[in-house]
Design goal:
The complex is a heterodimer of chains A (114) and B (143).
Chain A: H1 15-23, E1 29-30, H2 31-41, H3 50-62, E2 66-69, E3 80-83, H4 85-113
Antiparallel strand pairs in A: 1-3, 2-3
Helix pairs in contact in A: 1-2
Chain B: H1 2-8, H2 14-38, H3 40-67, H4 82-111, H5 115-139
Helix pairs in contact in B: 1-2, 2-3, 4-5
Chain lengths: 114, 143
């Protein structure tokens, strides 16, 4: 019997989407905290614009990979978001895909150097 | 600067504004303050990046909306039941429409120098916004 590995729904994730999902793994975060976490995760390389981040959040909410989260300090201006189970699964799949690709690339490099 | 950004957010489709504009405006204000403290160059590049991001975001939102209606039902907080949230959305959208209507009338009155009418719609606008805020709070719908 052929083993079928579940695949991400829409090919590789974009960098903003990947970073948002990664930033929400440990706990829910609101917009500004998300921005800061993404900056830290990318070691200062990625500074998303507000429009880019909320565009990605809108799509992620639509796909139900994240959800709005009611916290103590939730207000109109401070809405927290958290990862859903399908979102976590998509992130795992994407990281697995990247790991395989990195392994293949490194193996090629080693062959060339040998 | 935040007021200008808030005005530019009006370029987004209404559904997107209803769901995200207050949050976006607040995040923008926090980041702008932070970058201003860093340096003038950092602030300038921030403003440029924000304007570019906003332009792309507005275009993408309109494009997405043409392809498929934004499903606000998916924005439901997990603590709120589907039935309550469905009813709440209708109320929020109606309240938002009233805000937009009053604002439009007020702008038209100002343009015509009819300040008596502008003042009337300004008062109506304030009431409509308060109503919108209360409806959102009542159903736990942020943004």
């Amino acid at each position: 019997m052929r083993h079928v590995t579940p695949q991400p729904t829409e090919g590789p994730l974009t960098e903003p989407v990947l970073l948002i999902l990664m930033a929400l793994v440990d706990r829910p975060r609101h917009g500004y905290a998300l921005m800061k976490e993404i900056e830290a995760l990318s070691q200062g390389r990625v500074r998303l614009s507000t429009g880019t981040m909320y565009g990605a959040l809108r799509r992620l909410l639509g796909d139900e990979w994240i959800e709005r989260f009611e916290s103590d300090d939730t207000s109109r201006e401070k809405q927290a978001y958290r990862l859903t189970a399908p979102g976590r699964r998509q992130l795992q799949l994407e990281l697995e895909r990247m790991k395989k690709l990195t392994r293949a690339g490194m193996a090629r490099l080693r062959l060339r150097e040998a | 600067m935040r007021r200008i950004y808030a005005l530019l957010l009006r370029l987004y489709p209404r559904e997107v504004r209803t769901a995200f504009a207050p949050e976006m405006s607040a995040v923008f204000a926090q980041l702008a303050e932070e970058r201003r403290k860093e340096s003038w160059a950092s602030f300038s590049s921030f403003v440029l990046a924000e304007l570019t991001g906003l332009a792309i975001g507005v275009a993408a939102a309109h494009h997405a909306l043409r392809r498929t209606e934004l499903d606000l039902r998916k924005m439901r907080p997990p603590e709120v039941s589907k039935e309550v949230y469905g009813g709440a959305l209708d109320e929020v959208i109606a309240a938002q429409r009233l805000v937009d209507f009053n604002l439009g009338r007020m702008q038209q009155a100002i343009a015509r120098h009819d300040f008596l009418k502008a003042r009337f719609y300004s008062d109506e606008d304030r009431k409509a916004r308060e109503h919108l805020r209360l409806v959102r709070r009542k159903f736990g719908i942020a943004g």
